[in-house]
C-alpha cells in the first residue's frame, strides 16, 4: 500500500490551506491503513503464535513423578516387552534412564515422590497450595502389557537405591483421601517457575490402577482449583509384584563404568544358595 503517490489527485496550494489540510488528512488515514495491514500480515506470517489472552498468563500446574534422587538408583514395574527394550545411546545415567522408562510406560510403586510445578505468564505469588490424591476409575490400557517385571537402575554395581522415608509420606492413594494445604509461598512469572515435592504411598492395590492429583491455589486474595497438566491428570501405578516367597522377573541396568543390562527370570521360594539363570 502506498500513502503518497504521483497522480493521487491533490496538489500543494502554497497560497491556501484547503488542499494541504485535505492531503494531510488523506495521508494520515492511508498510513494508518497501511499499519493495520502490516500488522495483519505479520500476524498471518506467524500462525503458531497464540493470541495473547488472560488465560495464558494465569498460573498453570504441572505434576510429574519426581526424579528426586533417581541418579542414585531406583526401580519401577514394566511389561515384558518394555523390559527388553534398549534405551537410546545418550541415556547415560540413572536419572536419564528413569525419564526414558516413564515415557515408555513404566509404572511407579511404593512410596513415590511427585513434583508439583507452577508456571505463569505474569508475575504473581502462590500463597498456599491445596493438594488431594484420589483413586480414579480409568482402566489401565491393556495394550501396554501387564507390568510384571521389575526394572532397576544402579549407578554402579552394588549400589543401594534410596527410598523415601515412610514418615515423609503426605498422601495414601488407597487410604483416607484427606486434602493437605501447604503454606509455603511460591513466586512465579515468565521464565521463573517454582516447584515442590510431595510423597504419595501407592501401595494397597493389586495390579495397575489409576489415581489423580488435585491442586488448588490461593493467589491474589482468592482460591481456585487449577487443572493439572492441562486436564490430563490421570496417573497409573502398580504393586511391587514381589513378596511371599516370590521374586518377579528383573531387568537391571548398571550405568558405570559401562552401561550393561542383566535379565533375571521370576523365581518362587528361592533358596539362599539357589542360582537364578540371569543373562546379559
Structure overview:
- This protein is α+β, with helices and mostly antiparallel strands.
- It has four helices and 17 strands.
- Strands 5, 8, 11, 12 and 13 form a five-stranded antiparallel sheet that branches. A four-stranded mixed sheet has the order 1-3-10-7, with no helix packed on it. Strands 2-6-15-16 form a four-stranded mixed sheet.
- Strand 15 and strand 16 form a beta hairpin.
- The model is unreliable at 1-47 (pLDDT under 50).
Helix and strand topology:
Blueprint (H helix, E strand, L loop, with lengths): L17 H28 L8 H4 L2 E6 L8 E5 L1 H4 L10 H11 L6 E9 L4 E3 L1 E9 L12 E8 L14 E2 L7 E3 L3 E3 L5 E8 L7 E11 L2 E5 L7 E4 L8 E2 L2 E7 L3 E5 L2 E2 L12
Parallel strand pairs: 6-15, 7-10
Antiparallel strand pairs: 1-3, 2-6, 3-10, 4-9, 5-8, 5-11, 11-12, 11-13, 14-17, 15-16
Quick take:
The chain has 280 residues and is of the alpha+beta class.
Write a concise keyword list for the protein shown above.
single chain; 280 residues; alpha+beta; Immunoglobulin-like; 2 domains; 5-stranded antiparallel sheet; 4-stranded mixed sheet; 17% helix; 33% strand; elongated; disordered N terminus
Which radius of gyration do the C-alpha atoms yield?
30 Å
Ends apart, CA distance between termini: 71 Å
The coarse silhouette is: elongated
Q: Class of the largest domain in CATH? A: Mainly Beta
Mean pLDDT: 83
Helix content: 10-25%
Share of residues in strands? 25-35%
Number of helices: 4
Biggest β-sheet, characterized? Answer: 5 strands, antiparallel
Q: Quickly give the CATH architecture of the largest domain.
A: Sandwich
**Low-confidence runs of at least 5 consecutive residues:** 1-47
Q: What is the CATH superfamily classification of the largest domain?
A: Immunoglobulins
Order of helices and strands: HHEEHHEEEEEEEEEEEEEEE
Number of strands: 17
Whole-number total of structural domains: 2
Amino acid at each position: 500500500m502506498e500513502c503518497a503517490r504521483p497522480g493521487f489527485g491533490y496538489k500543494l496550494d502554497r497560497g491556501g490551506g484547503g488542499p494541504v489540510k485535505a492531503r494531510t488528512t488523506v495521508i494520515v488515514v492511508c498510513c494508518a491503513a497501511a499499519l493495520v495491514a502490516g500488522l495483519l500480515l505479520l500476524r498471518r506470517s506467524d500462525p503458531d503464535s497464540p493470541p495473547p489472552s488472560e488465560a495464558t498468563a494465569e498460573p498453570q500446574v504441572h505434576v510429574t513423578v519426581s526424579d528426586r534422587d533417581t541418579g542414585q538408583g531406583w526401580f519401577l514395574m514394566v511389561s515384558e516387552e518394555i523390559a527388553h527394550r534398549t534405551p537410546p545411546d545418550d541415556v547415560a545415567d540413572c536419572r536419564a534412564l528413569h525419564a526414558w522408562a516413564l515415557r515408555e510406560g513404566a509404572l511407579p510403586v511404593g512410596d513415590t515422590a511427585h513434583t508439583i510445578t507452577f508456571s505463569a505468564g505474569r508475575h504473581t505469588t502462590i500463597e498456599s497450595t491445596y493438594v488431594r490424591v484420589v483413586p480414579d476409575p480409568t482402566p489401565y490400557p491393556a495394550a501396554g502389557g501387564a507390568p510384571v517385571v521389575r526394572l532397576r537402575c544402579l549407578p554402579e554395581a552394588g549400589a543401594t537405591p534410596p527410598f523415601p522415608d515412610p514418615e515423609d509420606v503426605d498422601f495414601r492413594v488407597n487410604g483416607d483421601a484427606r486434602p493437605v494445604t501447604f503454606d509455603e509461598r511460591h513466586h512465579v512469572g515468565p521464565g521463573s517457575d517454582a516447584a515442590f515435592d510431595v510423597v504419595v504411598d501407592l501401595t494397597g492395590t493389586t495390579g495397575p490402577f489409576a489415581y489423580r492429583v488435585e491442586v488448588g491455589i490461593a493467589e491474589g486474595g482468592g482460591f481456585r482449583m487449577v487443572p493439572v497438566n492441562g486436564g490430563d491428570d490421570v496417573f497409573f501405578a502398580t504393586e511391587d509384584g514381589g513378596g511371599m516367597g516370590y521374586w518377579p522377573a528383573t531387568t537391571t541396568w548398571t550405568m558405570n563404568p559401562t552401561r550393561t543390562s542383566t535379565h533375571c527370570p521370576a523365581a518362587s521360594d528361592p533358596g539362599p544358595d539357589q542360582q537364578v539363570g540371569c543373562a546379559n
